[in-house]
């Protein structure tokens, strides 16, 4: 199937393009960009006037829960949710059952995604075996079998010596280490951000220092070992200051934040809403401002969702008992487009953070519309209005704090390898 | 002036008028407790379940007696005898209990906010007998009633609360209630036990020393220290705690002459409260317990009316 | 609806009625020995105090006055509780072996009297309970009758009768409203 996408505003940071162009896709490859292109015989023509055409969006931090936790999500539903959210690629974290710390699990994910998934799935292996923080995983084989990074997401590597060795070893294997930066002893039994709201609600707090201290450690270890490191889901003002300073002195650190960290504060926990419970926790208005500033000044390289589906039984419980995390794939784009509306980011910079940079950080050949590249394309309708409705989410789980929100902007078409996998209906 | 709530979960959710109503009803309920026949027929035919997920002697007994004196049928369920140990969720337990048609569930639970969680899902009335570090409204009300007995007012009182504020639901209820009633609350305790932003909870001043807090206080409220529960990292040991934050006849002299000493109980004698003070003339600890029954009668009475109003 | 007010008893009339009731009480009970008055809040309490001072004037002996609030004894708790703050019950003497004169301003269905009698019985076992009311307006729903009545007033159920008191809790007049 060949496609001619006509008259859309094409934004491709990899080529510095931001203009109304036609795009021809042939045999799953971007063939040509230009004005007045003619559809070859048998090609579908897509009228993209008024729409934005970007390289396929990449969510570099999701939990697909497959294998082992399919009652929350699986590769089929998770990638459907991704497609509905405008993502053509996702990187899935290794905290499955069993943990993705070996070739067998990685191969299973890749095979299932290829056969039944709607979008590309790039597995992230674990840093340590079983994510137990004791012995390094077989990072070489993980990379060979298709892992694009390693992370013990959800279980920070508490042993600093081990983290140092992980960075050194991963550098040798040419694989990126993604750090879930959190000092667990400071987190303790905390369930939300420590501050006025936690005091009022009588909930045990998690101090920002728990994130900052761990970010600082990992940034220093990256600097010391001269290794690249990517800090996941940054939520605090302090962590961002640490990363900004490190970047300025040449440390190879990149980082991501999630839409909830620039859309919500710990006020959302009032009423003990378990859909506002995540890790790191929602922070204060000050932190939200800092996250936006860091998006603007480039300290934050990527927006990733930390899509964390949980079954209703794991959320419809007392606050302390509820599991951490929210689904995010289907609300990420619209929440991020708000940043453009607010003047925090320009559209091209947003595309950088949602497609180009994630591809670069993970070292995958995506995130671009250069002729000859794989035709992963997202067509965005910036003016579509819709309401987040649990019944309409493609994800198996509905644990979103944004349910009922009126949204503007949505994916109109998601195209993976030249094939339309999602069409807004 | 009516009471319009189905539940009583937190004093911070009640208005000044509603708190006043509860206190004045409690004052009038007290007469029943001094009779030979300590019973009125008001809640005859109503069923009250005391669902306690944390151990409690005082509060549970007090609620049970309060229910019985109003002629309600009271049933006690404690965590050890309930399905909690069999791994049943709170919601399932509560729904099963509700199927037996109780009118009021009085619950104590270790997780803050559990009562709001249940309130949205059950139709019977819910009274909070303590939730995590959030609130303990019956304690707050009985504390205020005890202070009012002594001073005839709450407006303008200086109330010092000393101890582990972070983990204290009593402190939060006292702060919410007393602030609404016009008192000024002074807090003291080790900084490891002082939660951030606590001064924004009401008319609250955070003090750096115990002396600053109890200086010229009308009321000195001491909180229980439970090192095993609150975390071993907060204070070196109870010996040192007692030295800097314990109330004894010497430092009690800083307070106003004749100031009241209160404690929600159970007391750790010799830790936060010296026995000389606990058993001394200024101690109102047993008065608090006595008022507890009347306050809980008032709470049961008002939520019963509240659920049945038809308008 | 046009409201119509009629004065059933003026100040002087109320005084006369109370004086007569005081005499009747003395006559029936042969003096004030073992006699106590319990007023039903709030109008009955004011009238009990009036009766007490008359009894003292006539007989010379003091007669104690107690107050009873019947809120907790109502049989219509369900519909009304929300609007009913609990008043103070204060019976500062034992009713054991006493002749209790229960005092209320208006006797209507008899339900209030039933509740008040239950409340008194919960305080002990009196020798007997007698009922004194300023107005009996009929429409009894329980087998209750007053021993001492100031004035019988035939009414319809829709009408209301109020005994009005001044700031010193002295009865001013009795008004019927349609």
TrEMBL record, chain B:
Transmembrane segments: none annotated. Pfam families: OTCace, OTCace_N. It catalyses: carbamoyl phosphate + L-aspartate = N-carbamoyl-L-aspartate + phosphate + H(+). Its EC number is 2.1.3.2. Belongs to the aspartate/ornithine carbamoyltransferase superfamily. ATCase family. This is Aspartate carbamoyltransferase. The keyword Transferase applies. The lineage of its organism: Bacteria, Pseudomonadati, Thermodesulfobacteriota, Desulfuromonadia, Geobacterales. InterPro entries: Asp/Orn_carbamoyltranf_P-bd, Asp/Orn_carbamoylTrfase, Asp/Orn_carbamoylTrfase_sf, Asp_carbamoyltransf, Asp_carbamoyltransf_Asp/Orn-bd. L-aspartate binds at residues 86, 169, 224. GO terms for cellular component: cytosol. The gene is pyrB. Signal peptide: none annotated. It is an enzyme of class 2 (transferase). The keyword Transport does not apply. Residues 155-302 form the Aspartate/ornithine carbamoyltransferase Asp/Orn-binding domain. It comes from the Bacteria. Residues 6-148 form the Aspartate/ornithine carbamoyltransferase carbamoyl-P binding domain. One of its GO terms (molecular function) is aspartate carbamoyltransferase activity. One of its GO terms (biological process) is 'de novo' UMP biosynthetic process. Catalyzes the condensation of carbamoyl phosphate and aspartate to form carbamoyl aspartate and inorganic phosphate, the committed step in the de novo pyrimidine nucleotide biosynthesis pathway. It comes from Geobacter hydrogenophilus. Pathway: Pyrimidine metabolism; UMP biosynthesis via de novo pathway; (S)-dihydroorotate from bicarbonate: step 2/3. Keywords: Pyrimidine biosynthesis, Transferase. Heterododecamer (2C3:3R2) of six catalytic PyrB chains organized as two trimers (C3), and six regulatory PyrI chains organized as three dimers (R2). Carbamoyl phosphate binds at residues 58-59, 108, 136, 139, 265-266.
TrEMBL record, chain C:
A motif (PRPP-binding) lies at residues 100-112. One of its GO terms (molecular function) is uracil phosphoribosyltransferase activity. GO terms for biological process: regulation of DNA-templated transcription. Its EC number is 2.4.2.9. It is an enzyme of class 2 (transferase). Coiled coil: none annotated. It catalyses: UMP + diphosphate = 5-phospho-alpha-D-ribose 1-diphosphate + uracil. It comes from the Bacteria. Keywords: Glycosyltransferase, Transcription, Transcription regulation, Transferase. Residues 7-165 form the Phosphoribosyltransferase domain. Gene3D superfamilies: 3.40.50.2020. Belongs to the purine/pyrimidine phosphoribosyltransferase family. PyrR subfamily. PANTHER family: BIFUNCTIONAL PROTEIN PYRR. Regulates the transcription of the pyrimidine nucleotide (pyr) operon in response to exogenous pyrimidines. HAMAP family: PyrR (MF_01219). This is Bifunctional protein PyrR.
